[in-house]
Design brief:
Structural class: alpha/beta
Largest sheet: 6 strands, mixed
Strand order of the largest sheet: 3-2-1-4-7-6
CATH superfamily of the largest domain: Spore Coat Polysaccharide Biosynthesis Protein SpsA, Chain A
Bound molecules: uridine-5'-diphosphate, manganese (II) ion
Order of helices and strands: EHEHEHHEEEEHHHEHHEEEHEEHHH
Number of domains: 2
Shape: globular
Radius of gyration: 20 Å
Number of helices: 13
């Protein structure tokens, strides 16, 4: 269906990596729909290039620059920046129907059947089930709806400061009007609900079609040990089931990293787009640390493993030494074999 699309959003390189994994997971599960990524102007060139290889359409959305109603709305509610960018998906009017998916989601099987549903279909939020979770939802692009949504958000704001508050306020009869708009929870299995209701997860988790890594810690915030196939780092605080994290990392390492490597060529990395290797680990750096990562660090080569890890997590990789591209590539090659 040429006028059906999955849509995601990434305003920076971290979320862009999530979008790449999501896009790949949709392709691997043979979706027949178009794939669209909305991105912010901060997403780096190499990441944009990789996104363009995975998605049919990559659209830069710069709310600040748009000079339209979105810009005006943004002036009134600067706190809702990312939310306004997300609402932009309603302007994709060359598609008759879309499914929005957060960049921190990943599909586990084909979910094209979601296009049989109507706007606004979504799964309950695990924290407050009378609200829908806005990480996965079916919608119909429409300039009229877009305008109303902007108007609504400037007037009422968002009760949770994000898009979920705005959307639940706007589509306020979701909980009561039409049960066919309640997507089964397996289309948006949020990782936190697994531990809060483990028996249900044991009973139904095997049917999950979409996993959503919601919350503060995203898959790319963990450290991954490819040899042991283990997630390390702050696992004790982990709210995500390790096997889903492992699925994310496996797809990331096998399908996304090679594309990123091609984009970066032999150049030392300058952005938060690429995984760095740290001794035995493939680890992710903090995107917010982009500025500190943009110049080679004068790092001592004799740091202890713990100290190096800390440097890594602050985005201060030793690009010219231990963490040079060749070393990273060698490490990843071993991992991929
Ligand atoms: N997002 C983004 N940049 C940000 C924050 C969020 O692009 O700085 C997008 C991204 O698609 C993300 C979605 O907005 O998946 C919702 O945010 P998030 O997933 O972090 O919220 P949660 O699901 O944890 O509540
Ligand atoms: Mn999310």
């Amino acid at each position: 269906m040429a006028d059906h699309a999955f849509v995601t959003l990434a305003t920076n390189d971290s979320y862009a990596r999530g979008a790449m994994v999501l896009g790949k997971s949709l392709r691997n599960n043979n979706t027949s729909k178009k794939l669209v990524a909305l991105i912010g102007p901060q997403v780096s060139e190499p990441c944009q290039s990789v996104l363009k290889r995975i998605f049919d359409e990559v659209k830069v959305v710069d709310v600040l620059d748009s000079g339209d109603t979105a810009h005006l709305a943004m002036m009134k509610r600067p706190d809702l920046g990312v939310t306004f960018t997300k609402l932009h998906c309603w302007t994709l009017t060359r598609y008759s129907k879309c499914v929005f998916m957060d960049a921190d989601t990943m599909v586990l099987s084909n979910i094209d059947e979601l296009f049989d549903r109507e706007e606004l279909s979504a799964a309950p939020d695990p924290g407050w089930p009378d609200c829908f979770n806005s990480g996965v939802f079916v919608f119909r692009p429409s300039v009229e709806t877009y305008g109303k949504l902007l108007e609504y958000s400037t007037e009422h704001g968002s009760f949770d400061g994000g898009d979920q508050g705005v959307l639940n306020g706007f589509f306020s009869d979701w909980a009561t009007a039409d049960i066919s708009k309640h997507l089964p929870f397996i289309y948006n299995l949020s990782s936190i609900s697994i531990y809060t209701y483990l028996p249900a997860f044991k009973q139904y988790g095997g049917n999950a079609k979409v996993v959503h890594f919601l919350g503060k810690t995203k898959p790319w915030s963990y450290t991954f040990d490819p040899k042991a196939k283990q997630i390390s780092g702050s696992v004790q605080e982990a709210t995500t089931h390790p096997s889903f994290l492992l699925d994310w990392w496996t797809l990331y390492a096998s399908a996304v990293v090679p594309m990123l490597q091609q984009q970066y060529g032999d150049q030392p990395f300058h952005s938060g787009c690429v995984e760095f290797q740290h001794s035995d680990m493939v680890t992710s750096e903090n995107v917010q640390g982009e500025s500190s990562a943009s110049h080679p660090q004068e790092l001592q080569t004799r740091l202890s493993s713990e100290e190096r890890k800390e440097q890594w997590e602050q985005g201060q990789a030793d690009y010219m030494g231990m963490d040079s591209f060749d070393n990273i590539k060698r490490k990843l090659d071993t991992f991929l074999k």
